[in-house]
Amino acid sequence: MEVVVLLLDGVWAALQPTNLGLAFLGVVIGLFVGAMPGLGSVNGVAILLPFTFVIQEITGTISSPMIFLAAIYYGAMYGGAISSITLGIPGASTAVATTFDGRPMALSGNAEKALVIAAIASFVGGTLSNVIFTGAAPLLASVALKFGNPEIFALMLLAFATFIGLSGDDIPKTIISICFGLVMSAVGFDIISGAPRLLLFDSTQWFSRGIQFLVLAIGVYGIGEMLWTINSSRDSLKMTEANITLARVWNAIKSFPETWRGTTIGSFLGFFVGILPAAGATPGSLMAYGVTKMVSKNQEEFGKGRPDGVAAPEAANNSASTGAMLPMMTLGIPGSPTTAVLLAGMVIWGLQPGPLLFTDQPEFVWPLIGSFYISNVIAVTVNLACIPLFLKVLRMPFSILAPLIFVLSVVGTYAAYQNIYDVWLMLIFGIGAFLLRILDYPLAPAVLAIVLGPIAEPKLRQSLLLSDGSWMIFLERPIAGPITIAAIILLLLPLYGFIRKRMKARKAS
Amino acid sequence: MLFVRKLTLGLIALLASLAVSAAHAQFEPTKPIDFVIMAGKGGGADKMARLMQSIVEKEELASRPLVPVNKSGGSGAEALVALNSATDPDHTIMVTLNSFFTTPLRQPGLGIDIMTFAPIGRMAEDTFVLWVHKNEGVNSFEEFLAEAKARGSGWVMGGTGSAQEDQIITDFLNDTFGLEIKYIPYKGGGAVAKDLAGEQIDSSVNNPSEALGFYESGDVIPLVAFTSERLPMFPDVPTLAEAGEDFAYYMQRAVVGAPGMSDEALAYYTDLFAKVYDSAEWQQYKADKSLLGDYTSGDDLANYWQVQRDRHEVILKASGAIN
Amino acid sequence: MRLAELVTAFVIALFSLYLMWESGEGPSWDPTAVRFANIGINVNNEGPGSGFWPFWLSLAMFICSVMVGINWFRRRSPPSRSRDRFLDTYGVKMFALVGGGLVAFLFLIGLIGFYGAIPIFLFYYIYFLGKHPWWLAALIGISAAVFCFFFFDVAMRIVLPKGALEPMFIPLYDIFL
């Protein structure tokens, strides 16, 4: 009960005109930054960090600047879906999974439905996770601490397992795609031995920084997919009919409950993955997509414009972003790049994030938590209100939209890492992706792999270092064990299905 | 056509040289300043860089903004290469740490000579403290030595990176006290602190700023400081010198300029960061995070680099991390 | 399509072999290190070596590309049965014009920076490929560049390279930054 009182106090503080105004401003900035390919919440938060000192001086409280930054974070999570759906390029790494079904929906004339579902699923995910956060933050923090290296690796394995069936009729090609992503994630520098490695063609300038996830993702979706669309549509592409009426938006809102499954899975899974310091929102949203597809009765509809496939990752990335706040506030450990910057901000404002934050600084913590709820309401309202505006983009002639998407891909890749070699690499990946796409190579697994690879590899090696090379460490530990076993079973399922199909075919013939 | 292009390029070059020569008299930045951070977002160096940027912004110390760019790849190799090949050294500066010494030694292929970098200013020296979890039942450095010896390679130390600060200290402990501590490299100090609090590892040599949260909650305890004098923040924690070993190890927090920076620009930045150093915010931060060291610049800083570089070469050779 | 499938599998196989070779390379500070000494699971009692992860995964990639080859031979996969051309005349033309345009775009960025290259690329695509009126192409090109300047350089403080056009921007920095 005490929590409820504290929360109500916090919500009241967040509703004060200054804080409300800051939250609104933050959400709008976040939406914009999130929708811009290459830029995500981390850029918005990092860039506006210095301005928060001015806010702190004017308002005189330490919670106001944080409310502003947290609102940007939320806004960006909503914004990422906008370009994933309308342009087909993930606006942020967290919105990659949203392109899988959001883009096909837009192409088949259901863009408004995809946008509405993304917005509402984000709201549900964000709000559900806020409730869990409010109720169980300290408890969950102690769970997060139980996840050491073997546990995180087991979880990454599980993430792969949920994805193994993704768009892969051709098993060798799917495995090639996964392995390619995993090996590419090892390029550059080996954190464990401290040595540069896999400097392809001995080029330090190109590869010493490694291959960043967005370079591959923008290449595949911004360039490869666009070339493929141009090639297969023969100049006759009609994106969506011109008249988006309020009635259609309303119908889309009414149809939201049919995505309950994806939304629920996304909300809970996203939150849980988000609180683990190594993971963050991107693996969370990918896993949510994988699991939703796995438990669905209509698996073959995924990737072709299934509303569940939009709801799951969107609910998950919002939920995970709240989740990532948890280790940040209760342990002082960032769960994602964005929370790392927020944490830097808190330290600069003179706070000490850590186990004592909740007891020592309630006047900071509760208004902030209150603002999470408020920001979510603002974000979903602004987002829904702007949907007709976003859809204007789709009404552009394709021969104007396409070059703009190319320019956004190039500028976005540069802006993300500020390295011109990454832009070239992005283009090379894009052209390669186009050629492979024609030959039915699935590319989503490579994108997934380059997200999970940099987390999984060090965790695997740290674990094996701990166990002197014994794989049993993944089975012996009380938390890692069950996760590993679940992952192995899931990995073997498609194989089992494959063998059974073979047997049947053999019997029939 | 070619002629036109040449003419245009020539004109542009002329304009550029005019702009530069005008700047030479009394240097003022004419464009946004590239503020490279030799570490990822959210780490210790990043926090400090963003604090410096905020102070510059808030006090309006510079006429052009500092634009922070994180280049953490290859343990700082990416940042060093970026500075070495900067097209405009007068507008390129970097926040650096001890990988400034170790990375060029470990990756000779980069062709970096740190003595060519412009010594702007050292803002602080970060300190290292040995931490254990409270459930370990170890309350003093002596008890730590006894327990670690008894467990052999079953005692696990977590630290940031490989053959960097944390491992250098661990190697020192192993060599000096005949221990066999197993060292596990992590990506950043935050992850180390978290795994120590979760009892995934047995000890760490985190900077105070990284472990402070768990120290205040009582989860981890400091045993010994690797400094020459006791830290004001932990007056009860002995130094290693008191245990009879002459060993102190610090992490530099410095700002350097790209090789080829003009003297005028160097003077400008030295002055700029002196102002940052003197600001109340910076002094407060230094005190809060248990940082030591005065502002050092120019030849003093260059001499400090020379000493540190040679010291690291000796340490890394001894541990077999370089040949 | 059939030929392309085989060629691609072959290229991937070669690339995997190259990756395996590169994975085995020793650390740069130790020229005496033996190639492939770092791919084991417990190298010098320090756990898996730096080449462990990439080497075995590249091997898996190699094996799978051989399987793609086998599937090609047995005509099991759709592309290996297809009689369509990999890229028809339209495809080849489109690929050359658009892909070539993108490559030229990136080269231009190196010379005259983003703000010179963006209008040129957009004009090229919208006017020549899109067959829209020249004024529309010019308008979109220039507005895109202006928008990018205000969004990235001014608002986001991400300074995009300007190449040879840098001096033109000094007065703009004076005003906006």
Structurally, the number of domains of chain A stands at 1
Number of helices of chain A: 22
Please state the structural category of chain A: mainly alpha
Largest β sheet strand count, sense and barrel closure of chain A: 2 strands, antiparallel
What is the number of strand segments of chain A? 2
Quaternary structure type: heterotrimer
Q: Helical residue percent of chain A?
A: over 70%
Radius of gyration of chain B: 22 Å
**Annotation, overall tally of beta strands of chain B:** 10
Find the structural class of chain B using helix and strand composition.
alpha/beta
Order of helices and strands of chain A: HHHHHHHHEEHHHHHHHHHHHHHH
- Poorly predicted segments of chain B: 17-24
Give the neighbour order of strands across the main sheet of chain A.
Answer: 1-2
Strand order of the largest sheet of chain B: 2-1-3-10-4
Helix fraction bin of chain B: 40-55%
What is the CA-CA span between the terminal residues of chain B? Answer: 55 Å
Mean pLDDT of chain A: 85
Note the total helix count of chain B: 11
Show the helix and strand layout.
The complex is a heterotrimer of chains A (509), B (323) and C (177).
Chain A: H1 2-14, H2 17-35, H3 41-59, H4 63-86, H5 96-107, H6 111-145, H7 149-163, H8 171-184, E1 188-190, E2 195-197, H9 204-207, H10 213-233, H11 246-254, H12 260-275, H13 281-295, H14 307-331, H15 337-348, H16 357-360, H17 362-395, H18 398-417, H19 420-438, H20 444-466, H21 473-476, H22 480-508
Antiparallel strand pairs in A: 1-2
Helix pairs in contact in A: 1-17, 2-3, 2-4, 2-17, 3-4, 3-15, 4-5, 4-6, 4-14, 4-15, 4-17, 5-6, 5-14, 6-11, 6-12, 6-14, 6-17, 7-13, 7-20, 7-22, 8-20, 10-18, 10-19, 10-20, 12-13, 12-14, 13-14, 14-15, 18-19
Chain B: H1 2-24, E1 33-37, H2 44-58, E2 66-70, H3 77-84, E3 92-96, H4 99-106, E4 118-126, E5 129-133, H5 141-151, E6 156-160, H6 165-177, E7 182-186, H7 189-197, E8 203-204, H8 208-216, E9 220-225, E10 251-257, H9 263-278, H10 280-288, H11 298-319
Parallel strand pairs in B: 1-2, 1-3, 6-7, 6-8
Antiparallel strand pairs in B: 3-10, 4-10, 5-8, 5-9
Chain C: H1 2-23, H2 52-73, H3 78-81, H4 89-129, H5 134-155, H6 166-176
